[in-house]
Amino acid sequence: MGATGKSTRWYTAEPLLWPACRCQATNAIEKSTKLNDRKILVGVDEAGYGPNLGPLTISASIWSVPLDTEETDFLGAVADFLQPKPLSANSRHIPVGDSKLLYDRSKGLSTLEFGVLAMASLITPGVGMKAVPGMTNPPEFPTTLGELSQVFGQSLINGEGEIDQTAWYRSAECLAVPSTELPIEQFADAVASVSELLAAVDIQLIGLRSRVITESALNAGLERSGSKGHILAAHTLAIVSECIEEYAASSGAIECFCDRQGGRKNYLPILLDAMPELWFSELAQAAHRSSYECQSPRTKIHFSVGGDRFPPTALASMLAKYLRERYMQAFNAFWLEHCHGIKPTAGYPVDAKRFAGQIGPAAEKLDLPREMWWRMK
Description:
Blueprint: H1 17-32, E1 35-47, E2 56-66, H2 71-78, E3 82-83, E4 94-95, H3 99-102, H4 110-121, H5 145-151, E5 154-157, H6 167-172, H7 184-200, E6 204-213, H8 215-225, H9 228-247, E7 251-259, H10 268-274, E8 281-285, E9 289-294, E10 299-304, H11 311-338, H12 349-365
Parallel strand pairs: 1-7, 3-4, 5-6, 7-10
Antiparallel strand pairs: 1-2, 2-6, 8-9, 9-10
Helix pairs in contact: 1-7, 4-7, 4-11
Protein backbone atom coordinates (compact mmCIF):
# COMPACT_ATOMS: atom_id res chain seq x y z
CA MET A 1 0.00 0.00 0.00
CA GLY A 2 1.53 3.29 -1.06
CA ALA A 3 1.05 6.83 0.13
CA THR A 4 -2.28 7.08 -1.74
CA GLY A 5 -3.68 4.16 0.25
CA LYS A 6 -4.30 2.14 -2.93
CA SER A 7 -3.03 -1.40 -2.99
CA THR A 8 -0.80 -2.61 -5.80
CA ARG A 9 -0.86 -6.11 -7.25
CA TRP A 10 2.13 -8.04 -8.51
CA TYR A 11 1.57 -10.44 -11.37
CA THR A 12 3.93 -13.10 -12.61
CA ALA A 13 3.96 -15.22 -15.70
CA GLU A 14 6.78 -17.43 -14.42
CA PRO A 15 5.51 -20.99 -15.09
CA LEU A 16 8.11 -22.79 -12.96
CA LEU A 17 7.68 -20.88 -9.71
CA TRP A 18 4.05 -21.43 -8.99
CA PRO A 19 3.51 -25.22 -9.10
CA ALA A 20 6.55 -25.98 -6.93
CA CYS A 21 6.03 -23.05 -4.60
CA ARG A 22 2.34 -23.72 -4.11
CA CYS A 23 3.01 -27.41 -3.59
CA GLN A 24 5.49 -26.62 -0.81
CA ALA A 25 3.11 -24.17 0.86
CA THR A 26 0.10 -26.47 0.49
CA ASN A 27 2.01 -29.44 1.86
CA ALA A 28 3.19 -27.33 4.77
CA ILE A 29 -0.36 -26.31 5.62
CA GLU A 30 -1.74 -29.84 5.28
CA LYS A 31 1.07 -31.43 7.26
CA SER A 32 1.03 -28.75 9.94
CA THR A 33 -2.33 -30.16 11.07
CA LYS A 34 -1.05 -33.76 11.04
CA LEU A 35 2.27 -33.51 12.82
CA ASN A 36 2.15 -36.34 15.35
CA ASP A 37 4.91 -38.15 13.49
CA ARG A 38 6.81 -34.90 12.95
CA LYS A 39 9.24 -32.77 14.89
CA ILE A 40 8.95 -29.00 14.99
CA LEU A 41 12.26 -27.13 14.80
CA VAL A 42 12.29 -23.49 15.91
CA GLY A 43 15.26 -21.17 15.37
CA VAL A 44 15.29 -17.82 17.23
CA ASP A 45 17.71 -14.89 16.96
CA GLU A 46 17.84 -11.12 17.37
CA ALA A 47 19.17 -7.98 15.74
CA GLY A 48 19.79 -4.63 17.38
CA TYR A 49 20.86 -5.74 20.85
CA GLY A 50 23.83 -3.34 21.00
CA PRO A 51 22.60 -0.03 19.49
CA ASN A 52 21.25 3.02 21.31
CA LEU A 53 18.89 3.93 18.47
CA GLY A 54 16.20 1.92 16.72
CA PRO A 55 14.32 -1.21 17.77
CA LEU A 56 15.41 -4.57 19.07
CA THR A 57 14.00 -7.20 16.70
CA ILE A 58 13.63 -10.88 17.56
CA SER A 59 12.53 -13.40 14.96
CA ALA A 60 11.83 -17.11 14.68
CA SER A 61 11.65 -19.58 11.81
CA ILE A 62 9.52 -22.69 12.29
CA TRP A 63 10.13 -25.97 10.42
CA SER A 64 8.48 -29.37 10.22
CA VAL A 65 10.83 -32.37 9.84
CA PRO A 66 10.61 -36.16 10.34
CA LEU A 67 10.45 -37.08 14.02
CA ASP A 68 13.91 -38.69 14.15
CA THR A 69 15.71 -35.75 12.48
CA GLU A 70 18.80 -34.57 14.35
CA GLU A 71 20.63 -31.27 13.93
CA THR A 72 23.35 -32.84 11.75
CA ASP A 73 20.69 -34.53 9.58
CA PHE A 74 19.07 -31.18 8.86
CA LEU A 75 22.40 -29.55 8.06
CA GLY A 76 23.33 -32.30 5.63
CA ALA A 77 19.94 -32.27 3.93
CA VAL A 78 19.94 -28.55 3.08
CA ALA A 79 23.65 -27.75 2.75
CA ASP A 80 23.68 -27.68 -1.06
CA PHE A 81 20.85 -25.20 -1.57
CA LEU A 82 20.62 -23.07 1.61
CA GLN A 83 24.08 -21.58 1.76
CA PRO A 84 25.65 -18.84 3.94
CA LYS A 85 27.17 -16.96 1.03
CA PRO A 86 26.16 -13.94 -1.08
CA LEU A 87 24.57 -14.20 -4.47
CA SER A 88 26.48 -14.31 -7.71
CA ALA A 89 25.14 -14.10 -11.25
CA ASN A 90 24.93 -17.88 -11.59
CA SER A 91 23.79 -18.75 -8.06
CA ARG A 92 20.88 -21.13 -7.70
CA HIS A 93 20.97 -21.32 -3.91
CA ILE A 94 19.02 -19.17 -1.47
CA PRO A 95 21.33 -17.21 0.86
CA VAL A 96 20.68 -18.46 4.41
CA GLY A 97 23.32 -17.78 7.04
CA ASP A 98 24.41 -15.44 9.79
CA SER A 99 23.09 -12.01 8.82
CA LYS A 100 26.52 -10.54 9.56
CA LEU A 101 27.90 -12.60 6.66
CA LEU A 102 25.11 -11.70 4.25
CA TYR A 103 24.63 -8.00 4.97
CA ASP A 104 27.18 -5.32 4.23
CA ARG A 105 25.85 -1.82 4.82
CA SER A 106 28.06 -0.42 2.06
CA LYS A 107 26.54 -2.87 -0.46
CA GLY A 108 22.94 -2.57 0.66
CA LEU A 109 20.20 -5.05 1.45
CA SER A 110 20.11 -7.02 -1.82
CA THR A 111 21.46 -10.39 -0.64
CA LEU A 112 19.67 -10.25 2.72
CA GLU A 113 16.39 -9.22 1.11
CA PHE A 114 16.69 -11.89 -1.58
CA GLY A 115 17.13 -14.57 1.09
CA VAL A 116 14.34 -13.35 3.38
CA LEU A 117 11.77 -12.89 0.61
CA ALA A 118 12.71 -16.15 -1.12
CA MET A 119 12.24 -18.12 2.09
CA ALA A 120 8.99 -16.28 2.83
CA SER A 121 7.84 -17.37 -0.64
CA LEU A 122 7.94 -20.97 0.55
CA ILE A 123 5.10 -20.06 2.91
CA THR A 124 3.32 -17.34 0.93
CA PRO A 125 3.91 -17.90 -2.82
CA GLY A 126 4.95 -14.81 -4.73
CA VAL A 127 6.47 -12.73 -1.94
CA GLY A 128 9.04 -10.50 -3.61
CA MET A 129 7.85 -11.05 -7.19
CA LYS A 130 7.54 -8.05 -9.49
CA ALA A 131 4.48 -7.08 -11.51
CA VAL A 132 4.27 -9.01 -14.77
CA PRO A 133 0.88 -8.73 -16.55
CA GLY A 134 -0.87 -11.81 -17.87
CA MET A 135 -1.68 -14.00 -14.88
CA THR A 136 -5.30 -15.08 -14.46
CA ASN A 137 -6.77 -14.51 -10.98
CA PRO A 138 -3.47 -13.30 -9.51
CA PRO A 139 -3.00 -13.63 -5.75
CA GLU A 140 -2.47 -10.59 -3.57
CA PHE A 141 1.22 -10.10 -2.83
CA PRO A 142 2.73 -7.95 -0.09
CA THR A 143 3.94 -4.67 -1.55
CA THR A 144 4.73 -2.84 1.68
CA LEU A 145 6.55 -3.67 4.88
CA GLY A 146 3.25 -3.52 6.75
CA GLU A 147 1.71 -6.15 4.49
CA LEU A 148 4.83 -8.29 4.57
CA SER A 149 4.86 -8.16 8.37
CA GLN A 150 1.59 -10.09 8.33
CA VAL A 151 3.45 -12.96 6.65
CA PHE A 152 5.98 -12.76 9.49
CA GLY A 153 3.35 -12.81 12.23
CA GLN A 154 4.94 -9.63 13.55
CA SER A 155 4.16 -7.98 16.89
CA LEU A 156 5.14 -4.33 17.31
CA ILE A 157 5.51 -3.64 21.03
CA ASN A 158 5.87 -0.33 22.83
CA GLY A 159 6.24 0.51 26.49
CA GLU A 160 2.63 -0.45 27.21
CA GLY A 161 2.67 -3.61 25.07
CA GLU A 162 0.48 -2.03 22.38
CA ILE A 163 1.02 -0.68 18.88
CA ASP A 164 3.54 2.15 19.03
CA GLN A 165 2.41 5.40 17.42
CA THR A 166 5.87 6.93 17.02
CA ALA A 167 6.01 8.55 13.59
CA TRP A 168 8.85 6.47 12.16
CA TYR A 169 7.06 3.21 13.03
CA ARG A 170 3.90 4.41 11.31
CA SER A 171 5.80 5.46 8.18
CA ALA A 172 7.75 2.18 8.08
CA GLU A 173 4.52 0.31 7.37
CA CYS A 174 4.41 2.01 3.94
CA LEU A 175 7.99 1.19 2.89
CA ALA A 176 8.08 -0.61 -0.46
CA VAL A 177 8.79 -4.33 -0.69
CA PRO A 178 11.10 -5.27 -2.21
CA SER A 179 13.35 -2.30 -1.50
CA THR A 180 16.01 -3.49 -3.96
CA GLU A 181 15.91 -4.56 -7.59
CA LEU A 182 15.63 -8.33 -7.30
CA PRO A 183 16.96 -10.43 -10.23
CA ILE A 184 13.50 -11.80 -10.94
CA GLU A 185 14.35 -14.86 -13.03
CA GLN A 186 17.08 -15.90 -10.61
CA PHE A 187 14.69 -15.35 -7.70
CA ALA A 188 11.95 -17.45 -9.30
CA ASP A 189 14.34 -20.24 -10.26
CA ALA A 190 15.90 -20.37 -6.79
CA VAL A 191 12.53 -20.50 -5.04
CA ALA A 192 11.19 -23.20 -7.36
CA SER A 193 14.35 -25.28 -7.09
CA VAL A 194 14.65 -25.01 -3.30
CA SER A 195 10.95 -25.76 -2.87
CA GLU A 196 11.34 -29.02 -4.79
CA LEU A 197 14.55 -29.95 -2.98
CA LEU A 198 13.04 -29.34 0.46
CA ALA A 199 10.03 -31.45 -0.48
CA ALA A 200 12.38 -34.23 -1.62
CA VAL A 201 14.03 -34.38 1.83
CA ASP A 202 10.66 -34.02 3.62
CA ILE A 203 11.42 -30.67 5.24
CA GLN A 204 8.94 -27.79 5.32
CA LEU A 205 9.29 -24.20 6.44
CA ILE A 206 5.88 -23.65 8.05
CA GLY A 207 6.13 -20.29 9.79
CA LEU A 208 7.97 -17.06 10.53
CA ARG A 209 7.45 -14.83 13.56
CA SER A 210 8.88 -11.55 14.76
CA ARG A 211 8.75 -9.13 17.66
CA VAL A 212 9.80 -5.52 17.15
CA ILE A 213 10.52 -3.97 20.54
CA THR A 214 10.61 -0.20 20.36
CA GLU A 215 12.91 2.16 22.20
CA SER A 216 10.17 3.07 24.68
CA ALA A 217 9.46 -0.61 25.37
CA LEU A 218 13.13 -1.31 26.05
CA ASN A 219 13.42 1.69 28.35
CA ALA A 220 10.31 0.67 30.26
CA GLY A 221 11.71 -2.84 30.61
CA LEU A 222 15.04 -1.51 31.83
CA GLU A 223 13.30 0.55 34.50
CA ARG A 224 11.62 -2.61 35.76
CA SER A 225 14.46 -5.14 35.53
CA GLY A 226 17.63 -3.10 34.96
CA SER A 227 18.90 -5.81 32.60
CA LYS A 228 18.85 -5.68 28.81
CA GLY A 229 19.84 -9.36 28.75
CA HIS A 230 16.78 -10.21 30.81
CA ILE A 231 14.55 -8.31 28.36
CA LEU A 232 16.06 -10.16 25.40
CA ALA A 233 15.68 -13.54 27.10
CA ALA A 234 12.09 -12.80 28.12
CA HIS A 235 10.98 -11.85 24.61
CA THR A 236 12.92 -14.73 23.06
CA LEU A 237 11.21 -17.20 25.37
CA ALA A 238 7.84 -15.55 24.76
CA ILE A 239 8.19 -16.48 21.08
CA VAL A 240 9.36 -19.99 22.03
CA SER A 241 6.39 -20.34 24.39
CA GLU A 242 3.98 -19.31 21.62
CA CYS A 243 5.43 -21.97 19.33
CA ILE A 244 5.22 -24.67 22.01
CA GLU A 245 1.62 -23.74 22.74
CA GLU A 246 0.68 -23.82 19.05
CA TYR A 247 2.39 -27.08 18.08
CA ALA A 248 2.66 -29.20 21.24
CA ALA A 249 -0.67 -30.99 20.84
CA SER A 250 -0.19 -31.88 17.18
CA SER A 251 3.54 -32.71 16.98
CA GLY A 252 5.67 -35.57 18.24
CA ALA A 253 8.40 -33.28 19.58
CA ILE A 254 9.61 -29.68 19.56
CA GLU A 255 13.24 -28.58 19.50
CA CYS A 256 14.22 -24.92 19.79
CA PHE A 257 17.58 -23.38 18.92
CA CYS A 258 18.40 -19.94 20.33
CA ASP A 259 21.56 -17.92 19.86
CA ARG A 260 23.29 -17.32 23.21
CA GLN A 261 23.88 -13.66 24.08
CA GLY A 262 26.43 -12.29 26.49
CA GLY A 263 27.94 -14.36 29.29
CA ARG A 264 24.78 -16.08 30.53
CA LYS A 265 25.11 -19.88 30.65
CA ASN A 266 22.38 -20.92 33.07
CA TYR A 267 18.96 -20.33 31.51
CA LEU A 268 17.00 -22.68 33.78
CA PRO A 269 15.66 -20.02 36.19
CA ILE A 270 14.49 -17.76 33.38
CA LEU A 271 12.98 -20.75 31.53
CA LEU A 272 10.94 -21.74 34.56
CA ASP A 273 9.89 -18.13 35.06
CA ALA A 274 8.84 -17.70 31.42
CA MET A 275 6.93 -20.99 31.22
CA PRO A 276 5.88 -21.91 34.77
CA GLU A 277 3.35 -24.44 33.52
CA LEU A 278 6.17 -26.57 32.02
CA TRP A 279 8.86 -28.39 33.98
CA PHE A 280 12.29 -28.01 32.40
CA SER A 281 15.44 -29.72 33.62
CA GLU A 282 19.04 -29.22 32.58
CA LEU A 283 20.11 -31.61 29.84
CA ALA A 284 23.68 -30.37 29.35
CA GLN A 285 25.80 -27.29 29.96
CA ALA A 286 29.06 -26.62 28.15
CA ALA A 287 31.13 -23.63 27.09
CA HIS A 288 29.37 -23.45 23.72
CA ARG A 289 25.83 -24.64 24.54
CA SER A 290 23.28 -24.90 27.36
CA SER A 291 20.45 -27.40 26.78
CA TYR A 292 17.20 -28.09 28.61
CA GLU A 293 14.34 -30.54 28.20
CA CYS A 294 10.73 -30.98 29.18
CA GLN A 295 9.07 -34.40 29.07
CA SER A 296 5.50 -33.20 28.55
CA PRO A 297 5.17 -31.77 26.01
CA ARG A 298 8.32 -33.35 24.62
CA THR A 299 10.55 -30.31 24.17
CA LYS A 300 14.24 -29.42 24.03
CA ILE A 301 15.67 -25.90 24.07
CA HIS A 302 19.29 -25.08 23.25
CA PHE A 303 21.15 -21.78 23.79
CA SER A 304 24.30 -21.88 21.66
CA VAL A 305 27.31 -19.69 20.99
CA GLY A 306 27.34 -19.06 17.24
CA GLY A 307 23.92 -20.68 17.00
CA ASP A 308 23.14 -18.76 13.84
CA ARG A 309 25.25 -21.22 11.86
CA PHE A 310 22.25 -23.59 12.03
CA PRO A 311 19.83 -22.71 9.16
CA PRO A 312 16.63 -22.29 11.23
CA THR A 313 18.45 -19.87 13.57
CA ALA A 314 20.28 -18.26 10.65
CA LEU A 315 17.00 -17.51 8.88
CA ALA A 316 15.69 -15.98 12.11
CA SER A 317 18.85 -13.86 12.28
CA MET A 318 18.30 -12.68 8.70
CA LEU A 319 14.66 -11.80 9.25
CA ALA A 320 15.44 -9.91 12.46
CA LYS A 321 18.22 -7.97 10.72
CA TYR A 322 16.08 -7.24 7.66
CA LEU A 323 13.26 -5.83 9.77
CA ARG A 324 15.60 -3.73 11.88
CA GLU A 325 17.29 -2.25 8.80
CA ARG A 326 13.94 -1.37 7.24
CA TYR A 327 12.81 0.34 10.46
CA MET A 328 16.12 2.20 10.58
CA GLN A 329 15.42 3.45 7.04
CA ALA A 330 12.17 4.95 8.31
CA PHE A 331 13.90 6.32 11.43
CA ASN A 332 16.58 8.07 9.36
CA ALA A 333 14.03 9.39 6.84
CA PHE A 334 11.96 10.90 9.66
CA TRP A 335 14.91 12.77 11.15
CA LEU A 336 16.22 13.86 7.75
CA GLU A 337 12.87 15.54 7.19
CA HIS A 338 13.31 17.55 10.39
CA CYS A 339 17.11 17.96 10.36
CA HIS A 340 18.04 18.67 6.75
CA GLY A 341 21.35 17.23 5.63
CA ILE A 342 21.87 15.00 8.66
CA LYS A 343 23.96 11.92 7.96
CA PRO A 344 22.04 8.65 8.51
CA THR A 345 23.01 6.41 11.41
CA ALA A 346 23.02 2.67 12.02
CA GLY A 347 22.32 3.42 15.68
CA TYR A 348 25.44 1.89 17.25
CA PRO A 349 26.89 3.65 20.31
CA VAL A 350 29.64 5.94 18.95
CA ASP A 351 27.71 7.27 15.97
CA ALA A 352 24.46 7.25 17.93
CA LYS A 353 25.87 9.95 20.23
CA ARG A 354 26.70 12.12 17.21
CA PHE A 355 23.21 11.61 15.82
CA ALA A 356 21.49 12.24 19.15
CA GLY A 357 23.33 15.53 19.55
CA GLN A 358 22.20 16.68 16.12
CA ILE A 359 18.53 15.73 16.47
CA GLY A 360 18.14 16.87 20.09
CA PRO A 361 16.83 20.40 19.34
CA ALA A 362 14.37 19.08 16.72
CA ALA A 363 13.14 16.37 19.09
CA GLU A 364 12.44 19.04 21.71
CA LYS A 365 10.47 21.13 19.21
CA LEU A 366 8.50 18.04 18.15
CA ASP A 367 7.76 17.23 21.80
CA LEU A 368 9.41 13.82 21.46
CA PRO A 369 10.90 12.94 24.86
CA ARG A 370 14.32 11.33 24.81
CA GLU A 371 13.01 7.99 26.10
CA MET A 372 10.97 7.59 22.90
CA TRP A 373 14.02 7.53 20.64
CA TRP A 374 17.12 6.94 22.81
CA ARG A 375 17.70 3.57 24.46
CA MET A 376 19.21 3.80 27.96
CA LYS A 377 21.26 0.64 27.25
